[in-house]
Amino acid sequence: MTEIYLDHAATSPMHPEVIDAMVAVMNDVYGNPSSIHGIGRHARKYLDNARGFIARSIGAKDHEIVLTSGGSEADNLAIFGTAYAHQNEGRHIITTQVEHHAVLRACERLEKEGFDVTYLPVDKHGMIAIDDFKRALRDDTILVTIMYGNNEVGTKQPIAEIGALLKDHTATFHTDAVQAFGLEKIDVDALGVDLLSTSAHKLNGPKGIGFLYERPKAHLQSLIVGGDQERKRRASTENVPAVVGFAKAVELAQSSMEEKATEYARYRQMLLSAFDEAGIAYHVNGDALHALPHVLNVSFNGMDVESFLINLDIEGIAVSSGSACTAGSLEPSHVLLAMYGKGAEELRNSIRFSFGYGLDSAQIKRAAQTVIGIVKRLTK
């Protein structure tokens, strides 16, 4: 039985061209980019070229890219780095109830350290209200951290609008764009963000590498100390093969962005049309108009998510019930909880399908029929 992977929002398979690029570097480039001899300078050339390409992909400059071990570290550096660097100017932070846990748990730790955090609510589509944001913004707000697009339901937040509102405010504006990078055209100046987090493994790159975009005026306190790498912002010898692989993944993603959006929209419609034709009861969680193209979160009436996932796995269909970082946990999704409230059926019957590299229409059709068969069997 061939497995069908519909959990690309959790992680994505590495593209063969990314693997080839990394293997070539692993074979030929072994120097430390900080070394001044020829072998070190050779490694530095690969590092600088990859960094430059990554920077240009979001309209940034080379020196504004801080390489990290992934999205969680980038989020932590943005949040803790800003809070500690600016705590004498204020101690108020604004975020949302539906952020990734890398953001939420960082904010919760800062609360224990005496910072004041406002968690903006969302509506039933997972969207914040701009009026709520305006009311929350204060003179002592030093950080606003709001995700670009949600990893569980796909809803995109009004980042550019928030950026415009903060133009004349001293607060640093961070967005977690881990789920959106490679699927959405991102320009940091158009968005008005000061900090932006990404991760390579969400766009068919290697795990263990990401970056934080930092506008020079943001001013962060380093969290990892040691050498002077990353302009003294993040100590540790750079992983040159991983950075090269990341840049290749970005190149491939950007060259097929529009094509992928069209393809994923077709997959989404294929699934929903099959559910409609089968007459099963369901509804989509999230905002259909303002959503990432690859995420489809569906609530199936009368289903139990635990037995649903087990049956799908037995049939070779890999999906998720929520955030990958809480995999193995049967606690309700904090995103759906924020959207629907305690006791809502959606907390117990929702499945996330997410699309990506390697899928085709035949797999989507088979997945749809498998889901339909399980739903009919378990809701008898």
UniProtKB/TrEMBL annotation:
Ranges for domain Aminotransferase class V: 4-366
Pfam families found in the cross-reference section: Aminotran_5
EC number: 2.8.1.7
Superkingdom per UniProt: Bacteria
Keywords: Iron, Iron-sulfur, Metal-binding, Pyridoxal phosphate, Transferase
Class of enzymatic activity (EC top level): transferase
SUPFAM superfamilies tied to this protein: PLP-dependent transferases (SSF53383)
InterPro entries membership: Aminotrans_V_dom, Aminotrans_V_PyrdxlP_BS, Cysteine_dSase, PyrdxlP-dep_Trfase, PyrdxlP-dep_Trfase_major, PyrdxlP-dep_Trfase_small
Reaction(s) catalysed (UniProt annotation): (sulfur carrier)-H + L-cysteine = (sulfur carrier)-SH + L-alanine
PROSITE patterns on file: AA_TRANSFER_CLASS_5 (PS00595)
Necessary cofactors: pyridoxal 5'-phosphate
MF annotations from Gene Ontology: cysteine desulfurase activity; iron-sulfur cluster binding; metal ion binding
Entry similarity comment: Belongs to the class-V pyridoxal-phosphate-dependent aminotransferase family. NifS/IscS subfamily.
PANTHER family noted in UniProt: CYSTEINE DESULFURASE, CYSTEINE DESULFURYLASE FAMILY MEMBER
Name assigned to this protein: cysteine desulfurase
Species of provenance: Candidatus Kurthia intestinigallinarum
